[in-house]
Amino acid sequence: MNNYQTFDTVYIFNYKPFSKVCQAFDIKNFLAYNLDMTNKTDYTLPWTSPERYRSYASYDKAYTDEITASVAASTYKTTYHIQPKTGLLNDPNGFSFFNGKYHLFYQVFPYGPVHGLKSWGLMTSTDLIHWQDEGLKLFPDTVYDSHGAYSGSALPLSDDQLFLFYTGNTRGADKSRAAYQNGATYSASGEIKKFVSPLLTTPKGYTDHFRDPMIFDYQGDKYAIIGAQTAELQGAVVLAHANDASLTSWEYSKQLAFTKQDMGYMIECPNLVFIEQTPVLLFCPQGLDQAVCAYDNIFPNMYVIADGFDPEASSLTNTSALHNLDDGFEVYATQAFNAPDGRVLASSWLGLPDLDDPSLADGWQGILSLVKELTLKNGKLYQYPVAETLSLRQNQEQITLLDMPIASPTNSYELELEITSDNELYLFANADKTSYVSLTVDMLNGTLTLNREHLPINWAESYGNTRSTTFDNTTGTVKLNLFADTSSLEIFVNDGEKVMSSRIFTAPENTYLAAKSDITATLWQLKK
Ligand code: FRU
Fold first, then answer.
1. Cα–Cα 20 to 30 A to 1, which of 234, 250, 331, 422?
2. What's the order of all strands across the beta sheet hosting 132-138?
3. Is the CB of 348 under 6 A from ligand 1?
């Protein structure tokens, strides 16, 4: 294998001592915690590192029954979004079309609503709407992923084999981190086979914050981009290419040139897709200077549009300025891929690193966004729920939103409005409108502002209670499609010119809608 030499060195210095410690570590936990997780049914209590990384086998039935019942009873569960059965879900992984079905894997720690020992869970679907839960598939069960099967991507190798490229997170006894870019295949019959050795180890010049390989096809050759931190602690994206069709031998190209600006201290989850040949790079820079591109969340999810991809030079040519992918409160780690039907499909984690949401208390956190189609119109990136989403609509009603709140039968609906003058909408409201989320429309300035401060549960306030976006106001009308689902709200402006995705936590009965000035709207209840 091409960098086996390098890998061997890592193995001797980093891994071997650690693998012994690792076994002792589990046994020690087993005894020290005596499998007593009774204190852990208060999910808001802090989790220690040994608790987060103990083996799955060490959780007893009483504990798993308890967390399963707690999540099942949670009033924050969404009805048409992907969410974890228990524990914490974060990044979408391995989004692909294989064996006649869309495959959407996701990061999950099933034993608690915290970032712990991660596996890949899998959902499959023929229509991107009805998802079949296939359970956990890729486990952290080898020396090259002992502390987590971290994020990655997928590409069909044949009708029977889906190639998975993922990061194996490992920790030494001294807490040092080593990251391996590992390969595996997932067969049509549902079986995972991991490659014996990592496909890539961290090259010289980068720290072990090196992860999230995204594989893609470009003119018949297979490439991957990986999120990285340079030895100078700068965010970067590294390009690699496959040497063979079976994807067992990989080699680094160079760091991907796509900007001259400083990209913060780390880039996570890079994705390169081609929208009608135009390359679009999606990525999550951490520690990005606000002067490079302003953002409101702890970490942004951004993109650039280029006019070409040059694999020889490892560069994207004539890239645009950086843009925020989404202007809502919680969106991260968007994963996109070129689907065989020609569409570019994307799924995002409606959550953020280093942020807990109120469903933590019920034993779970994190949902995936609606599946969005990415298109370019007049050089601008648009994101809109895939056409199949229309099949969720039922019970269409023309309503007039008034100052006096009216109740929607549920908080799982789509609301469509065309707005021509300044207004303020109130959603997730209670009957007397003392509790709500507001959306202020300013037609003159072409801005929309979402405000969460009047909700009964205030959380994540350190980054502020409002988020704003701008829209093209030259037509004098702004079209809004709002998708509410119990504890989430995705707002699509002008058919996807802008998007605001957020989590909303309120009481189940707060399904009222109102507006400052009367306005008609179409309301559909959305199927489960
Ligand atoms: C992004 C991320 C990835 C990593 C994964 C671990 O949210 O930190 O960089 O692979 O989550 O769950």
1. 234
2. 132-138, 119-125, 101-109, 87-98, 364-365
3. no
Closest-lying ligand 1 atom to the alpha carbon of residue 152: 10
Q: What is the pLDDT of residues 53-103, one digit of tens each?
A: 999 999 999 999 999 999 999 999 999 999 999 999 999 999 999 999 999
Residue 25 has pLDDT above 50, yes or no: no
Distance 456 CA to ligand 1 centre (A): 31
Determine the residue of 88, 212, 284 to mutate for testing ligand 1's pocket, defined as the one with the most ligand atoms within 8 A of the Cβ atom. 212
Which tokens belong to 76? 């924050």
DSSP state of 204: T
Distance 228 CA to ligand 1 centre (A): 12
Percentage of the chain modeled with pLDDT above 70: 93
Residue 368 CA, ligand 1 centroid: distance in Å: 14
**Whether the Cβ atoms of residue 172 and residue 193 lie closer than 8 Å to each other:** no
Helix segments in 60-218, DSSP class H: 61-72
Is CATH 2.60.120.560 the classification given to domain 392-526? yes
Cβ-based neighbour number of residue 62 at 10 Å: 12
Kindly state if the Cβ of 150 falls inside 6 Å of ligand 1. Answer: yes
Over range 391-418, report the average pLDDT. Answer: 98
Q: Does 145 sit in the ligand 1 pocket, CB within 6 Å?
A: no
Using alpha carbons only, give the angle 327, 405, 370 rounded to the nearest 5 degrees: 35
CB 56: neighbour CB atoms within 10 A? Answer: 16
317-327 exposure pattern, b = at least 16 Cβ within 10 A, e = fewer: eebbebebbbb
Both tokens of residue 386? 């895939």
Active-site position among 91, 212, 356, 485:
91
**CATH 2.115.10.20 is held by the domain 49-385:** yes
Is a pLDDT exceeding 50 seen at residue 377? yes
Contact 264, 285 (CB under 8 A): yes
- The CA 410 to ligand 1 mean position distance, Å, reads 33
Report the C-alpha gap between 125 and 129 in whole angstroms.
7
Q: Which of 358, 329, 400 is nearest to 507 (CA)?
A: 358
Active site residue 212: no
Q: Considering the chain, what is the average pLDDT of its residues?
A: 92
Q: Is the CB of 91 under 6 A from ligand 1?
A: yes
- Give me the pLDDT at residue 3, please: 28
150 neighbors 212 (Cβ within 8 angstroms): yes
DSSP characters over 353-409: TT---GGGGGTEE--BPPPEEEEEETTEEEEEE-GGGGGGEEEEEEEEE-SS-EE-S
Q: CA-CA distance, 322 to 261, in Å (whole number)?
A: 10
State whether the Cα torsion 68-333-245-217 is positive or negative. positive
| SS3 label, residue 205 | coil
Mean pLDDT of the region 387-397? 98
Q: Where are the chain's structural domains?
A: 49-385, 392-526
Distance CA 106, CA 94 (A): 8
* pLDDT tier, 326 (very low <50, low <70, confident <90, very high otherwise): very high
